[in-house]
Amino acid sequence: MYEHDVIVVGAGGAGLRAAIAAQEAGADVAIVSKLHPVRSHTGAAEGGINAALREGDSWEDHAYDTMKGSDYLGDAPAIETLCQRSPYEVIQLEHWGMAFSREEDGRVSQRPFGGLSFPRTTYAGAETGHHLLHTLYEQVVKRGIEVYDEWHVLNLAVTEEERPEDRTCHGVVAYDVATGELSGFKARDGVILATGGPGQAFDHTTNAVSCTGDGQAMAYRAGVPLEDMEFIQFHPTSLPSTGVLISEGVRGEGGILYNAKGERFMFEHGYASNDGELASRDVVSRAELTEVNEGRGIEDEYVHLDMRHLGEERIIDRLENIVHLAEDFEGVDATKEPMPVKPGQHYAMGGIETDENGETCVSGLYAAGECACASVHGANRLGGNALPELIVIGKRAGYHAAGKEMEPAKIETGQRGEYETATIDSPVELGEGGSPGDAVADGGAVAAGDPADPDTVLNATVRAEQDRIDELLNKEDGVHHSEVRSKVQQSMTRNVNVFREEDRLKQALRDIRDARDEYQNVKVMDPSRTFNTDLLQTIETQNLLDLAEAITVGALARREFRGAHWRAEAQERNDDEWLKHTMLSWNRGSPELWFRPVILEGENKTYEPKIRSY
Amino acid sequence: MSTQPPQQETDESTAETSAEPETESTSPGQQKRAAQKRERANASAQRQAEADAKAKADEETREIKVFRYDPEVEEKQEPRFDTFHVPFTKGMTVLDAVMYARDHYDPSLTFRHSCRQAICGSDAFFVNGRQRLGCKTQVSELDEPIRIEPLPHQDVVKDLVVDMDHFYEEMESVDPYFDPDETPGNDLEEQRQSRANREKVKMSTRCIWCAACFSSCNIAAGDNQYLGPAALNKAYRFAMDEREGESRKQERLETIEQEHGVWRCQTQFSCTNVCPKDIPLTEHIQELKREAVKKNLKFW
């Protein structure tokens, strides 16, 4: 067994920042990650980091834009924390040497981004995430922070009290990819999940193959609620054949969207008469699909994004990476012809419920970054707001886990304070099925000895995971996980996309139910203990099943149109009924739906919901 | 072990796919593409049934030969090549091809991959005799059969997976972190950097640690302690950054000037030729040599 004060799971932006902060606060910290840190998907972020740095801008304006962008489903304390701290964290990155793009006077450049009232997005070419990731990893190397890379975390060691709010997390169980060794990692002070989003629940996604929402699924099964899972951002400019992302920076620099008739539809068809291409992402994605559905798409599938008029010099200076991506993945020379683009799954606004310090309702368990929901982004994330969340909330989670004194959070977690319960209108049985409360089906630990003793909990979790692996490897016959996975991915893209209808959402739940049943017979074909990616992907597929179901249940429950979530049956935002977060608790295998009111009271003002137009 | 797909299974699965009803939300373009894809899959399955083991893949499939090795599995302990016929689709990359082979023919086929867009640096392979990123290499540009091997000069863990530890050690041996002589006292005050200087270090900061250069370098192959092109490029990235200050730069030059440093480079340009991010590695190494000479003259 390995032992540290703080264990960080995942080594993207949030995980690395959390680890640095925890070490700064005096903790013995270790990072456990299924990928080497520089392979993390933070590296694929292109556009930038929003921070109110300059005269004429203010954190209050950034907060207002973010709240408006969230369609009034972000929690004000989280949004204000993000906007107040982002300038400090961006300059911290600069002090650590990050290669930001620069102005003539040598200061960090900023550019306009969708939904922003000020050109507030700092950037490093069109590869901001790459530079952020490498800069943070450099600091981890400098500090000698221990990294267990290619150790795949399979489960959390959490005590078994009846209410999740009474449980404690004592560590994790991880699998050494190279050798097949399974080991407990005891965390004396805290575990921080920084495992990224669940993009692989969809088949047309900008996300990496590794984005399987592992941390979300593990936290969910340990009793932590998943929050606002229905809010999935579909990025308006992904390449049609691969889902590769074309940065919003292209539109920020002046790129224009055209339909098949050569119309600049964002203006000409009135989708966003003021902001046009730079309206919020959900607005642009719906506009594109409406154009296609009404017969004005190109090849009835996509629209064109044109940046030729920017001139080669400016393109190469600020968007060079885009030219390479269009060339390598779509065969288009973007300096000479427009790029084909269509909406693709890009980001999950929802995730593991936390407060603004990254703490969950389970004691000693934290989450930060895309896997978490603080909630900064509410119903729709603005471009350039994901990276600041990594560094702001990541740092706070690191400090808090390491025991640094911090202001108590204003956001409540778990079933405490004000909340209401609800029932789920599902055509099929949800969750694990079979016998609810079965600890093995729960992936949980069957404790022998004192159930509160950390070592007992950890050892029992290691044994349960060993049993799971043995079962998967030793099955005589069965289906391969890739069949199960691709069915769910296709159903999600078909039925839980930009435009959502009740019948289709129910169809998705049926498909997920079938997939869960098939998964009972899943078999790992590769018998090896050496680098068995077949085994690990099979386990990831189970995580995706949980998350696809959570996304769809949320989408079915929310009968209104808010932010990224559009419903055919209720095409307007309904503030009287729906100014509340969708919460889903695993409840030992049978998902339980409940709601918590959104917090619109900020430090100095209350955010009044207004009509969201761009 | 046969690497050919069991014929019956392939037939069943393609039949199932084509029976699937189209839905409204799928655009006609997508439908067309899907239909074409199915047609191709069907056609290739039929042809594959007819083809004997020696048959060259026809227009609709591509033949890949993949290196296989697993120290733990008896029939894979002796390294060998497995042949797969993969249905070809427009835009297919080498990574797509090995993923297809894994998901449809042999789930034990093992390789690292993640982002699919040439930024995570996981999938550098030795393809038709050259280091390339699998996700960035079009199948259509390669001669058949396409030979896919793990990166040379690194220990093979399994199939296409190599042990990266030595590469990481070299990367981390050059103090690969920003370390300025001084930092502004104000938490909100940035260090200034000229556009020209940012431009100077820009290419060097693009490195994705894929190790293609390191694997291509003859010197690194012969001298296990040679820092190698990627680590030297990392040193260049900081040594040339005007924000770090002169004294740190001199220290960095000492690091790269050591016995197994820049002077080992014989300017063969193999690293530059294989770099998937077009980093002028050899030039950077040459520039470090010049800087080192200048430094030595100064202190002489």
In quaternary terms, these chains amount to heterodimer
CATH architecture of the largest domain in chain A: 3-Layer(bba) Sandwich
**Largest sheet properties of chain A:** 7 strands, mixed
Q: Structural class of the helices, strands and pairings of chain B?
A: alpha+beta
Unreliably modeled segments of chain A: 435-447
Which pair of protein chains has the largest interface, and what are the residue counts? A-B, 77 and 68 residues
Number of strands of chain B: 7
Number of helices of chain B: 11
What overall geometry of chain B do the principal axes of the alpha carbons give? Answer: elongated
Sheet of most strands of chain B: 5 strands, mixed
Radius of gyration of CA atoms of chain B, rounded to a whole number: 24 Å
Radius of gyration of chain A equals 23 Å
Count of folded domains of chain B: 2
- Element-level helix/strand string of chain B: HHEEHEEEEEHHHHHHHH
**Strands ordered across the widest β-sheet of chain B:** 2-1-5-3-4
The top-level CATH class of the largest domain in chain B is Alpha Beta
Strand proportion of chain A = 15-25%
What is the percentage of strand-forming residues of chain B? Answer: 5-15%
Explain briefly what this protein structure is.
The complex is a heterodimer of chains A (614) and B (300). With 614 residues, chain A is α/β, with parallel strands linked by helices.
Structural account:
The complex is a heterodimer of chains A (614) and B (300). Chain A folds into 3 domains: 2-232 and 346-422, FAD/NAD(P)-binding domain; 235-343, Succinate dehydrogenase/fumarate reductase flavoprotein, catalytic domain (Flavocytochrome C3, Chain A, domain 1, Alpha-Beta Complex); 454-573, Up-down Bundle (Methane Monooxygenase Hydroxylase, Chain G, domain 1), CATH 1.20.58. The radius of gyration of chain A is 23 Å and the shape is globular. By secondary structure, chain A is α/β, with parallel strands linked by helices. In chain A, helix 12 runs antiparallel to helix 13 and helix 12 (481-495) runs parallel beside helix 14 (533-557). In chain A, strands 1, 2, 6, 7, 8, 9 and 16 form a 7-stranded mixed sheet that branches. A 6-stranded mixed sheet of chain A has the order 17-15-10-21-22-18, covered by helices on one side. Chain A has helices at residues 13-24, 59-69, 76-95, 128-143, 214-221, 249-252, 265-268, 281-293, 312-330, 386-401, 454-474, 481-495, 502-519, 533-557, 575-578; strands at residues 2-9, 29-33, 49-50, 110-111, 121-122, 146-149, 151-158, 169-176, 182-193, 226-227, 232-238, 256-258, 303-306, 339-348, 351-353, 365-367, 372-373, 420-422, 499-500, 566-567, 580-585, 592-597. Chain B is of the alpha+beta class. Chain B folds into 2 domains: 38-162, Ubiquitin-like (UB roll) (Roll), CATH 3.10.20.30; 165-181 and 193-298, Orthogonal Bundle (Fumarate Reductase Iron-sulfur Protein, Chain B, domain 2), CATH 1.10.1060.10. In chain B, 40% of the residues lie in helices and 11% in strands. Chain B contains 11 helices and 7 strands. In chain B, strand 6 (156-158) and strand 7 form a beta hairpin. In chain B, helix 1 packs antiparallel against helix 2, helix 8 (228-239) packs antiparallel against helix 9 (246-257) and helix 8 packs across helix 11. The radius of gyration of chain B is 24 Å and the shape is elongated. The relative contact order of chain B is 0.09. Residues 1-25 and 43-58 of chain B have low confidence and may be disordered.
